[in-house]
Design a protein that fits this description.
2 helices, 2 domains, four-stranded antiparallel sheet, rod-shaped, five-stranded antiparallel sheet, Lipocalin, alpha+beta, 158 residues
């Protein structure tokens, strides 16, 4: 066994933007008007600079939440295993789009399986690697995560 990696580049930045957007929206809609002592809908209150600052922060927060949410929801994962069988090096890669349920499995850069599940609760795939039986399991874990396991002749490849 040489490597076992998972790549999920957009999810972390999506989370950071979405959480930052929530903070900006909270500051803009609740904290700034409260500190100023004026609530927009209170009787006789004037539209102040604090209200303007609150609106600007609220709009920025909303935009960050939308952008972050889109990035967060694009959970496309690539999992790769590289291992030796005999004297030959083999690579198995799965590309799994959590949002659409599409997955593609490659053996030594050749597509061997392709499928899609709208309600993606996990699945298993069987194929051969150098005349040996390989099984790839995609197991659903709560909350919204998956575990990927590759077995060759019953042995777990890590």
């Amino acid at each position: 066994m040489i490597s076992n990696e998972v790549k999920q580049p957009l999810s972390l930045w999506g989370k950071i933007l979405a959480i930052g957007g929530i903070v900006f929206a909270f500051l803009g809609l609740i904290v700034v008007p409260w500190l100023d002592g004026t609530w927009r809908f209170s009787e006789g209150a004037l539209y102040t600079r604090a209200d303007l600052a609150g609106d600007v922060l609220g709009v920025i927060g909303g935009l960050l939440m939308v952008i972050g949410g889109v990035m967060w929801s694009q959970k496309k994962v690539t999992k790769t295993w590289t291992f030796n069988l005999g004297n030959n090096l083999h690579t198995v890669r799965v590309d799994h789009d959590w949002w659409t349920g599409k997955r593609k499995i490659y053996l030594d850069h050749e597509l061997v399986c392709e499928s899609s599940k709208f309600f993606d609760t996990g699945s298993k795939y069987h194929f051969e690697v150098a005349a040996r039986r390989a099984s790839l399991y995609i197991r659903y874990r709560v909350p919204l995560s998956y575990v990927y396991e590759l077995y060759v002749d019953g042995d777990l490849i890590r």
